[in-house]
């Protein structure tokens, strides 16, 4: 009953197998091996165009270095107020990019386009005192389990283009959003106006595989130096490449995401049907937020269930009662139906 | 015949096996799992005292974050002029620590104590204009294959203590130096005055396992925040822990280093006996520098041998002739005797 | 009719005279002259305790370097959402301190204590992911012309102490607030819990005189290096000292602030009595915010009046009508009663 | 007998007078006044082309922000090993630019072209590990009183252009070099290949007037934001402009520099004729380095003379004997012939 986070899971057997194979070979270091090259080519295919790809160690690194590559002195980047880059990365995006992250409100973890426009308007391009609007970053799927529709992405991208701002997408849970929308990687990114993507594999079956993807390779010009100076260039880079090779082969990544999402569906259905719990707000993807009695939460934890309390957001549809608790439940490629059912049983038992 | 670098090797089977086992489990993320805790305990045993241990993604990160934890505004860190932190990390140590790296000359990659004193004297503690001496970093084994003796470490440490400066050791090839000296980890570090260590596992059989070790845990107070802000906190941190578990078990790490060094001995012996090559300078550990005819180098490469040219150092004992080439040969846990012999045959064939 | 800002004024004759005298002498550079020492002693007297004083070039520098001296990796500083450090310094405080500025709401430019507590609670001391609460900065007088009472300062300081956070005060208009409260410098700062002060002289009659004042000199330990590395150590530092000497002599600074405030009183009284204008919100000190018809504003500008439009704040008591304009009027030591009256006449004329 | 530094002098009466006049006016802040504009135009005339000019507080700021505007991630800037940017600015250039300063040897404070080439060769444009050559900075007049001839400037600039590197000139003593060479400002800068200049007025009669001058305004695109974020945008900027106005009027600046140099000539002549002192090395401009008996130095100091000891450079033509002292003597616009003669008398008296 591990629902604390999708990064509590291990790694998928196919990925392990590929790593094993890689471990018995010699190959060039620092991202220059043939395998590194081959995986870069694989990203071109996946995204249906020539892209520039850079492996890094963590999702925080992917976001921070992507933003660093878009940075200008006095720059301001806009992100949802509850975005990972603002609330969960200890200031790393600010540190690496030298920019400030400006919080944009919006329901269900998605930036409100009107609010976004209003924030951008405070930072015009000649605003030496205020600082200047320089980039926008959006999270897909969001921190609270929602997903921007393709039209919503297009709307944010439209605002970005209108102001001449590059658009970054934090795709720590990219695959979960993708299969939910039934879109292609291209459709959910550059075809809708995304310029740079943090492409996460770690939460979805790899043990450490994060990539920055530039849809215009020219924008990546400084990244090799930014990455090395940021201590993010792996010597045995091909072990990241190997994970991605297995991950992307025969649509494994999409299957894993579909499984995680299906497990979340099962959870949602069970909680909706439950008398002792309710969904805090509607989610898609592999995150579920529920309100359960504190006593039930204790019982669940005593029974071995793992999950995190969650801070009530500003736009909480229905407040959490004193004796209740808001919790987050995350499923992954490794979640088994019986885990879900066991958890629902514990909840039902109250 | 892979002698380009020890990071061209793969990963040792025992480490792979341990990773496989880890991949099928769920566990807490971000370095809080029981395995993470257990490995920290293991480091205590290895170093015979309570230490503070932090995993990071690369050797550059280990060096940079270690120095960042010792930093002061206007600080100057002293390192050998050919040190990795100065010549091979794209300024990452400066970037993360905000300090400048001040080059100290010395023969065979080791800081000359007299030169070190003279450099420190330029940066007294009240030198607002020049900047102030703040830390010393030494590399063991050095970039050019030499090793500081325990007495030499003690001498550098003595200078550090005398000036109130913390001493960092870049141990990317720590194990290779350790087995060469026949010392214990404690003897080669804190017992001789080292305060912080970059403990490298990647070059010696792991695929990605680097740790910062503080011998006074109080000095590590800021490191958790420095690491997270530096985007170096792995979500699936326990996969680093797992590598270290296997690496440190039953002295595997020492055996691997002994093997690599033995392969280097075999290379050295063969080159010394050769008519068509000479050792550029004496080395210990797993790095060998040789001078060979350019034509021989071409023949070797045509035969599949991998190695790098090397820039002639200032203190080159005997200059490289026009028709010759200075090359670096690095052995690893994965080097086979027949690879060495094959290479020596190619050299002999000219 | 110069009401655009108090930094549009020139310099007071007494300060000019002192600068003239200084210009004919030789003296030691970089803040080491006898005059520099004497002024530091003067600050001790003014603040009734031993303080550490550092001259810098701008108010932004004073704020940024003060915060840099309080910084920790992953640190978060709390400031009012409309504070100068957040909205008007192009990210300089973040740049120099490496901290993020977290906006705290509150009416009339003053942090709401409850909101402040709630923000701090999001960043506990072990919050590696979120970052940790590290400092609080308050502005006295505020950006919108209000003043924290001594009790209000004490309340903010109480929250700071409770959480172990140092408290900085941005005193760009320190004197204006001081004379308004009728307090002593000590009473408005360290006696109420302020730890570090940006003491501004430029807006009140100097042409360039800003100081950082530490009430616990021990907290200033790193400042000499921070200042030099920040390119803020004047070679002819004594010309700042000279300005402060004249500024602080015979309470000139308080007289100048009283004059500026009196001119603002005159403005306020005139606007309150006016049929064609209203005060946007109550202010003390030398800033007045008024709502006037757009046509009147144009007429005033045509007549030579200088002032700035102002962005409507969230807590605007009564919204600005379509045909009206919110403007800021700032008086200074150099404002003459006839300027105020002329302006009021223009407004009255509509 | 003030020979400690040219920044021990006060300010020239013409500059004081202009400041007085400025102090009685109101004018727009933050560099937007008509006077600011007029002075920018004045710089165009002085340099015979359209330039972009930015005032800052200190010479360190001018150098640091100029380099920041040229910076790239992983960038390396080349400077003479004894350059101010390396030895006397507490790491500010590294801090603001994020680049490392790479020391280039050379006799008499001037970069040796061959050594410069050799350093640049270590940092090619694709050298992710080493970092990449990004800028060159030269000092005119140098730290040790020498001056690059126009041909020598052209040679350095040639190397810069050849490698596609922008060339910065630290002109803290620009005027002293200019009058010595009898060149025009254009000839000593952009006509010989200089791209950016730190134009210093403080050491030559202003009390605080430093400017960054870009000969290609397009290169200055980011500077307004860099300057504000660096806390270097004066609110009463026009007081810097006013100093420059007086400084540049009727060639005052050149007259002042000629005077300072003439005083240095008088010193040099006296020391050369002296039995109890010798010139340490040949200098031009307003700096003189002498070797005198320690006892004489003590007597001079007892007699009220002010000067600094100097660290013996690597290329010291003739070593300093045990009982001797190497000292630096700097003259300025305010040095009087009788001060020089009095000092020479003290030296002669031994």
Automatic annotation (TrEMBL), chains A, B, C, D:
<dbReference type="InterPro" id="IPR001597">
    <property type="entry name" value="ArAA_b-elim_lyase/Thr_aldolase"/>
</dbReference>
<dbReference type="GO" id="GO:0006567">
    <property type="term" value="P:L-threonine catabolic process"/>
</dbReference>
<dbReference type="InterPro" id="IPR015422">
    <property type="entry name" value="PyrdxlP-dep_Trfase_small"/>
</dbReference>
<feature type="domain" description="Aromatic amino acid beta-eliminating lyase/threonine aldolase">
    <location>
        <begin position="3"/>
        <end position="289"/>
    </location>
</feature>
<dbReference type="InterPro" id="IPR015421">
    <property type="entry name" value="PyrdxlP-dep_Trfase_major"/>
</dbReference>
<dbReference type="GO" id="GO:0008732">
    <property type="term" value="F:L-allo-threonine aldolase activity"/>
</dbReference>
<comment type="subunit">
    <text>Homotetramer.</text>
</comment>
<dbReference type="InterPro" id="IPR026273">
    <property type="entry name" value="Low_specificity_L-TA_bact"/>
</dbReference>
<keyword id="KW-0663">Pyridoxal phosphate</keyword>
<dbReference type="Pfam" id="PF01212">
    <property type="entry name" value="Beta_elim_lyase"/>
</dbReference>
<comment type="function">
    <text>Catalyzes the cleavage of L-allo-threonine and L-threonine to glycine and acetaldehyde.</text>
</comment>
<comment type="similarity">
    <text>Belongs to the threonine aldolase family.</text>
</comment>
<protein>
    <recommendedName>
        <fullName>L-threonine aldolase</fullName>
        <ecNumber>4.1.2.48</ecNumber>
    </recommendedName>
</protein>
<keyword id="KW-0456">Lyase</keyword>
<dbReference type="InterPro" id="IPR015424">
    <property type="entry name" value="PyrdxlP-dep_Trfase"/>
</dbReference>
């Amino acid at each position: 009953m591990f629902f604390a986070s999708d990064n509590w899971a291990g790694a998928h057997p196919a990925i392990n197998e590929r790593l094993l194979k890689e471990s018995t070979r010699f190959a060039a270091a620092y991202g220059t091996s043939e395998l590194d090259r081959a995986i870069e080519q694989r990203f071109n295919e996946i995204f249906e165009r020539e892209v520039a790809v850079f492996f890094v160690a963590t999702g925080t690194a992917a976001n921070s270095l992507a933003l660093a590559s878009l940075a200008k002195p006095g720059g301001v980047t806009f992100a949802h107020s509850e975005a990972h880059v603002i609330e969960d990365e200890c200031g790393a995006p600010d540190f690496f990019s030298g920019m400030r992250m400006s919080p944009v409100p919006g329901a269900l973890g998605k930036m409100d386009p009107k609010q976004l426009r209003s924030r951008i308007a405070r930072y015009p391009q000649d605003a030496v005192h205020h600082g200047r609007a320089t980039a926008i970053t959006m999270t897909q799927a969001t921190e609270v389990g929602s997903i921007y529709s393709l039209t919503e992405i297009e709307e944010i991208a439209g605002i970005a283009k209108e102001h001449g701002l590059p658009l970054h997408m934090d795709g720590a849970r990219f695959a979960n959003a993708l299969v939910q929308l039934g879109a292609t990687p291209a459709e959910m990114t550059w075809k809708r106006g995304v310029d740079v993507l943090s492409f996460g594999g770690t939460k979805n079956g790899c043990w450490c595989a994060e990539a920055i993807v530039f849809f215009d390779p020219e924008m990546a010009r400084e990244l090799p130096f930014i990455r090395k100076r940021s201590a993010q260039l792996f010597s045995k880079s091909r072990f990241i490449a190997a994970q991605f090779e297995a991950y992307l082969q025969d649509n494994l990544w999409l299957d894993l995401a579909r499984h995680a999402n299906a497990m979340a569906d099962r959870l949602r259905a069970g909680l909706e049907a439950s008398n002792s719990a309710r969904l805090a707000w509607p989610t898609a993807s592999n995150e579920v937020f529920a309100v359960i009695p504190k006593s039930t939460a204790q019982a669940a934890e005593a029974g071995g269930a793992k999950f995190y309390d969650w801070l009530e957001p500003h736009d909480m549809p229905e407040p959490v009662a004193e004796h209740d608790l808001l919790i987050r439940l995350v499923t992954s490629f490794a979640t088994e139906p019986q885990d879900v059912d066991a958890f629902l049983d514990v909840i039902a038992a109250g």
